[in-house]
Structures are given as C-alpha cells and as structure tokens.
Amino acid sequence: MGLLVDGQWHDKWYDTSSSGGKFQRESAKLRNWVTVDGAAGPTGQGGFKAESGRYHLYVSLACPWAHRTLIFRKLKGLEKHIDVSVVSPDMLSNGWTFNVDAGSTGDSLFNSDFMHQIYTRHKKDYSGRVTVPVLWCKQTNQIVSNESSEIIRMFNSAFNEITSNHDDYHPAELHAKIDSVNDLVYDNINNGVYRAGFATTQGAYEEAYNGVFMALDSIEKILENNRYLAGKRITEADWRLFTTLIRFDAVYHGHFKCNRQRLEDFPNISNYVRELYQWPGVAETVNFYHIKRHYYYSHDMINPTRVVPAGPAIDFNAQHNRGRQSSN
Ligand SMILES: N[C@@H](CCC(=O)N[C@@H](CS)C(=O)NCC(=O)O)C(=O)O
Predict the structure, then answer these.
(1) Residue numbers of the chain with a pLDDT score lower than 50
(2) Between β-strands 55-59 and 82-86, what pairing exists: parallel, antiparallel or unpaired?
(3) Residue 42: exposure state from Cβ atoms within 10 A (0-12, 13-18, ≥19)
(4) Ligand 1 atom 6 nearest Cα
C-alpha cells in the first residue's frame, strides 16, 4: 500500500496521526467524463466521446468501488465495448499489481507490473494515491476518471446509442431521492465500514461503527415498505449499496469489526441482497476469493498472520421474498 509523489512510488500506509485516529479518504483527482458527443461533462475536460473499443477499465474484484463499475458494465451491455484488466487481490508494498500468479488477469494494454505505472503513464510526475477503478482512454493515452460514482453515471447513459440499452438507473424524477439515499449510504456504510476498520483509536472506531449500524437500521426500515431504496424502481443507489452489503458478513463484520449484527440477521436486507445478487449477470461480478484474500491478506496491520477465514457459509442463491412489499 502506498502512493506516488512526483511520479515516485512510496510504500506508506494511511496516516491517521493527524486526524485523531480517523481514516480520511482522499478524493479522486481525475474527473473527466465520457459523453455522447465528447462535450465536457460536469467536471474536467471534454474530448472523451463514447465510442466502442476506445476505453479500458482497470478494476480489482475485491474493491467495492471498482465493483460498481463492473456491475454497470454488465447491466448496460458494455462488455463488448469496454474491456477490462483485473489486478491481483494482494495489495502489498507495491500497491495493486498485475501479478498473474497472484490472481491478476495481467495488464492487457501495456503489460505493466504495477497499477502505479498506469498513473505515471497518464502523467509522469503524478502525485496521489493509486486507486482502482480507473477508466483509461486508449486513443489519447490517459486516464479519463478514477471516480467510481462518476464512471457508473457515464456507463448509465453515454453509450446508449452504441448498445441500444436504454435502461436508466439514474432517472431524472428520482435524482433528489437517490442523492439523499447515496449520502446516507456513502458516509455511513460504503465509507463507514472503512472508517471503522482503519480507525486507530477506540473513539474513531466507535463513531464509525455507530454510523454503520444507524444507517443499516434505516435501510432495514426503508426496505420494509419499498422494494428498492428509491421506491419501486431499482436505481444506482441500490447498486452502490449492494457492493458493500455483499462483502459485509465475509469481511466487514470480522476484519473491520462491524459486528453488532451480521447482515444475515436483518430480515429485509438479507433478502434484498439476495435479490440483487440474483439479478441477471450480477453474480458473475462477485468473486469471494478475491474479496476475502484482499482484505485479510493485504491488511497485515489488522491481521498480521494473514490467515484468511474459511467462512462464512452463506447461500446467496437461496430464494428471497422481495416483491411482497407494498411498493411506493
Ligand atoms: N473514490 C474512489 C475510491 C476508490 C478506492 O479507494 N479504491 C481502493 C480499493 S477498494 C484503492 O484502490 N485503494 C488504494 C489506496 O488507497 O491506496 C472511487 O470510488 O472510485
């Protein structure tokens, strides 16, 4: 684990000493948008027109943020149009690697050894964390975006004319609702589990832990009367939550100490996560070997023996009861 400073790799864990033991996530720095006609998006530069074969996605199958982009690539029929390289689950002194023996597909564009080489290929003297996902433009040889929440919005709409898939997971009439659910889920659940797991003081951990379960209790209530988080219709808010939920009992409950309850103990959430897991194409994006191996093996300051737990045994293919809610 580390970061680039003026293009040089430094092996360095997150510094929580100046923040009272709190983990603070660095915001993503590369924020251009692929658009239908190449016009600039809400942030960054223009020039990235949606075209088949022009973009490449770098992901980890362990990472919940990268997982969102893989799900949208599936749901939106983009597999033929956007190819993918998968890093190894082991993120050690060189950060993410393309070590094929350790579970990577290799870097199919440049045959690089390390993900940080993709960032320095983009900009020789890049400074910052080397995160996945990354959307790469093969035509201009640069990173378009390293922000998953924006990559899924590009995938949701920019390629519709190419794929003829007009499914919309961010419909205009639900923007406000989706934003409010996303705020609750991002701070307290998606990032909340990391804030609990990477906290280095008791107080910072407990604050994050309380947020995780406050938000899960709210979600459990929402799902009592609504099939999905924004009502009747599945939206990006559901997929953004799903990638944390599917990892929860396997990793966040134990490794990140989010252990008031397992998700299996929440009747609505546990059925809902099964419905989403069983959604066509989605199970293929979930890889529990990469998920467990990454966290338990890479974070040796949390788990110094690097022993990866064998369980839990959970059947995500079991029948769910969703669809019986009075949807509103
Ligand atoms: N804001 C980013 C966050 C991505 C992120 O933090 N990815 C993690 C993997 S789960 C990572 O690559 N971490 C490496 C690091 O922080 O050095 C997004 O949502 O795309």
Answers:
(1) 328
(2) parallel
(3) exposed
(4) 131
pLDDT of residue 24: 84
Residue closest to 313 by CA, chosen among 249, 248, 241: 249
Instruction: Tell me the CA–centroid distance for residue 131 and ligand 1, in Å.
Output: 4
> What are the tens digits of pLDDT across the range 22-39?
988 888 999 999 999 999
Catalytic-residue membership of 63 = yes
Residue owning the nearest CA to atom 12 of ligand 1:
131
Is the Cβ–Cβ distance between 219 and 269 less than 8 Å?
yes
- Per-residue burial over 272-299, b if 16 or more Cβ lie within 10 Å, else e, is bbbbbbebeebeebbbeebbbbbbbbbb
What residue spans define the domains of the chain? 2-163, 172-279
Q: Pick the catalytic residue: 14, 55, 58, 63?
A: 63
Neighbours of 224 (CB within 10 A): 11
- Three-class DSSP category at 182: helix
CA of 132 to the centre of ligand 1 (A): 5
CB 13 within 8 A of CB 299: no
- Looking at ligand 1, which atom is closest to the CA of residue 151? 20
Q: What integer pLDDT is reported at residue 34 of this predicted model?
A: 98
Residue 208 CA, ligand 1 centroid: distance in Å: 18
ipTM topping 0.85: yes
**209 is a catalytic site residue:** no
pTM: 0.97
Say which CATH class 172-279 falls into. Answer: mainly alpha
- Domain 2-163 fold is Glutaredoxin (3.40.30)
